[in-house]
């Protein structure tokens, strides 16, 4: 297996962080501090960082300001969402659920959803085929 690293960008000039390797240890507090310190967090309603990305799975740390929304009409992936802090409202499959700290939500593929941050929130989004 070839190791893959993120590339440096204007928003993240340090680059060179592994995103696909046989073993990746992720320091969540450090990643949370990073996305909250970036210009994108200060100027937009969200910021995120890809923690792991392979052919079959992607793990993304997402931070949303209060009232920020995410949605999709045609999701191709099974997903799980683990809330680290804050409060989210998820609408999917004709249901609405409140997601609180330390809770996990899972959705099958092909289920459209709408997610809104009731409070400033940070969560781990995992997408898999």
Keywords:
single chain; 129 residues; mainly beta; five-stranded antiparallel beta sheet; four-stranded antiparallel beta sheet; globular
Q: Could you explain how this protein is built, in words?
A:
This protein is mostly beta strands and 129 residues long. It contains two helices and eleven strands, in the order ββααβββββββββ. Strands 3-4-11-6-9 form a five-stranded antiparallel sheet. β3 and β4 form a beta hairpin. The longest helix has 10 residues, at 28-37. The two termini are 19 Å apart. The model has no long low-confidence stretch (mean pLDDT 88).
Largest sheet: 5 strands, antiparallel
Number of strands: 11
Low-confidence spans: none
Strand order of the largest sheet: 3-4-11-6-9
* Morphology call: globular
SSE string, helices as H and strands as E: EEHHEEEEEEEEE
Helical proportion?
10-25%
Terminal-residue CA separation: 19 Å
Q: Label the structural class.
A: mainly beta
Oligomer: single chain
Whole-number radius of gyration? 15 Å
Number of helices: 2
Mean pLDDT: 88
Beta-strand residue fraction: over 45%
